[in-house]
Design goal:
homodimer; alpha+beta; BirA Bifunctional Protein, domain 2; Rossmann fold; five-stranded mixed beta sheet
């Protein structure tokens, strides 16, 4: 009976990894999770599918275009496109059962039907961490977030990275003083400074009807230079009367001061007046994080403070602050840049037990039982194939040890332990073999 | 500006947990993952969305009805309804880059638009573990799977559970000897023995045109009693000439014999000739696992051997064997049965640091830094609220320790450590406090 074969392929924009990369990916995910948990954040998980009216409560052009939306029965539903909207719905729904400040992390996949292109994914992991207050939330939590970003990237093995911090109140206050009421478009233009340069920004600003003088004021502002202290001093020296502007400076000062108290090295964070982020979303502190040696990767961890998380789902005022790591994109880019460990394991198995003939199977199982009981991940190759084939299986998976069980081993109640790196093979008591393997694995870890 | 509030609610059939349950759920998931990894299985992850032609290559009524299928642009896509079809596609697609026998585990969510009812979920976790051979796969791997099921449920803290084992070849061989060619419907009727009883099964069989004699032969067969050895002896004593029947007995004998060699206690597995499972899918060994004290929960881990995993996606012959745990349903049922730990943590935080006034914030941060550096998960309550409110936050989250930082503590360079269980509060050097906390946490873990 011949069948039609369906070509096995994933959809474009959906990353799928081979086991070796998956092990590494999971390792990175575990480091992020562990770091968040060490700061006292609890996990939540929300359904991937929600009612469209929940996910689209806020609306907005790009979201509506990119969302995966469908009906089943009478229900209009969609796949979540971020973890923030589900968080808002979760906190509103379970409000009375949660304790505030609510410290939650959420690591999960989100879906955006973006244009398919290299390094852009339609399914990707976000690793979110947020602190939600009930009615109010101290700005010092904004500094703790800096510390969490720092610990996460340090624990991931990065040394040179910079957390760039700004405050939307400073931006809004400043623009207010220039009588620019609708700052959204201006901020969008300023946000492009790195991409399109000064001239580009001025040209965009003039299109918005701003005078040359005003545009230069804006550029002067966003180009304030120096240490964090110098930048704060320059901002104060502008002597603007805007209350919002002053509040922003005060907050930014606190965040940078407290970030230091949290033990974040000054080299790893700096005030950057050019970052604005998610234009209609954030209301105070905003963060972006860059790998100093790979600025082209863009921000690897971003977020900020928002005044009212769940306004579409509850009348409770729920301010919050948090950041997100786009893990799928980060992983892909680290791999492209050759920054992932090259010697990452292909399997967790440390010992492949090879029975030389079928009649030694039972003995091989006993040996594997003992290895596993001693915490050594082991597997047995039961296939009736040539020993050379079993050895190349071990080689391909870079399994560090092979144990042979044959005539001689069984008669003498011993095992033959082969170190696959050195090629050295020894006839040993099983206990000796266990000891050698444990010692060498401990040395290499 | 007043807004319309969208009622925050999840869709029916989608389980969402509060943090305390989520922590427990993740703990269980971690135990399963760790057990699979200890047997040398590697993780894979596949997209939740695949082309409909991939997911529906096999077709079949229930699947087509229940699947979440939709289009985006010109693409006809759907959400995966199990992890086996994606595994088949994965192995076919990446065949040349994988090493066989390919030992993979996959823990992920799947989607089935089932009728909504208590304890049935439309989104649920499956925890799959499979061994895939290239062209062939020794039946001894079928015994290893028994050992993996055993280790998993033992590691999860279950004592009384039984892995029921059968072999489809025995069933098919036996029915062949009764000249029943289309065994599908007969197996389906036999499969209901526990549910509808003997009379029910006989009535169903007579509807299929079977004589009373034949029906009684079938019932006699499925009711063979005794130890595993006795059951095997009774099967052999039937003296059937069917080659398939004999092969089945041989395999079942090997699986039970080797399961013992793998260290599975005889109390935890038994031959059960009544289980058939996934009627057109499995071709050899089949497994179901029951919690002895809670049979009403049904099988908590099921699976079997299949001859040809990926026949819809490749001409390669890929036999395999594996099992799956439906974790969401299991968790829900354990909770309903009151079998989940009652004292599970609500947070990972062990110490809540409370600055008595804002001016002690910096000192509180230093203390928290030290605690975290010593591996003690800590958080700081920065809100400007009454101390009693901060204490009830600690109480609600069952955080075992509170450290106060106020005037006296700061002046004397000490901390006040309060044991929330005993209520005892002491003024201590920070190092002393760290030592006490570490020792007591180690004792309680």
């Amino acid at each position: 009976m011949s069948k039609d074969i369906v070509k096995p392929a994933t959809l474009p924009g959906f990353l799928e990894l081979l086991p070796q990369d998956q092990i590494l990916f999971n390792e990175i995910k575990d480091v992020i999770r562990k770091t968040y948990e060490n700061y006292g954040f609890v996990p939540i998980e929300t359904p991937l599918i929600e009612r469209s009216e929940i996910l689209l409560a806020k609306g907005g052009g790009e979201t509506e275009k990119q969302i995966y939306r469908f009906t089943k029965g009478d229900t209009d539903m969609a796949l979540r496109f971020d973890l923030t909207v589900p968080l808002a719905r979760y906190v509103a729904q379970h409000f009375s059962e949660l304790n505030f400040p609510f410290r939650r992390y959420h690591i999960g996949k989100v879906y955006r039907g973006e244009k398919s292109q290299r390094g852009r994914f339609r399914e990707f992991y976000q690793c979110d961490v947020d602190i939600i207050g009930n009615g109010r939330l101290s700005v010092i939590y904004d500094a703790e977030i800096v510390s969490i970003i720092y610990s996460t990237f340090k624990n991931l093995g990065f040394g040179n990275f910079t957390i760039r911090i700004n405050n939307r109140k400073i931006l809004n206050g400043f623009f207010g003083s220039l009588n620019i009421e609708d700052t959204t478009e201006v901020l969008r233009a300023v946000d492009k400074l790195e991409k399109i340069g000064e001239k580009g920004v001025i040209s965009e600003l003039s299109k918005l009807g701003l005078s040359n003088d005003t545009s230069h004021e804006i550029l002067k502002f966003v180009k304030i230079k120096g240490t964090n202290e110098e930048k704060l001093a320059s901002l104060k020296a502008l002597n603007l009367t805007s209350a919002m502007f002053k509040e922003g400076i005060e907050e930014l000062e606190k965040v940078t001061e407290y970030a230091e108290a949290f033990g974040v090295p000054p080299a790893n964070y700096s005030i950057d007046l050019t970052i604005a982020r998610g234009l209609d979303y954030y209301t105070g502190t905003v963060y972006e994080t860059f790998l100093d040696d790979y600025p082209e990767i863009g921000s690897v961890c971003s977020g900020g403070r928002y005044e009212n998380l769940a306004e579409y789902y509850t009348t409770q005022k729920l301010p919050g602050v948090g950041v997100s790591i786009g893990l799928t994109r980060l992983f892909y880019q680290l791999k492209e840049a050759g920054l992932l460990k090259e010697d990452s394991p292909i399997t967790f198995t440390k010992v492949l037990v090879i029975p030389m003939e079928e009649k030694f199977n039972l003995n091989a199982i006993k040996v594997a039982n003992t290895l596993r009981a001693n915490g050594i991940v082991s597997e047995i190759h039961f296939e009736d194939v040539k020993i050379s084939k079993k050895l190349s299986y071990a080689n391909n998976l870079k399994i560090p040890y092979v144990i042979f069980i044959g005539e001689e081993e069984t008669e003498n109640n011993k095992v033959s332990l082969k170190d696959m790196k050195s090629g050295v093979q020894k006839l040993l008591e099983l206990e000796e073999a266990v000891k050698i393997i444990q010692e060498q694995l401990a040395q290499n870890s």
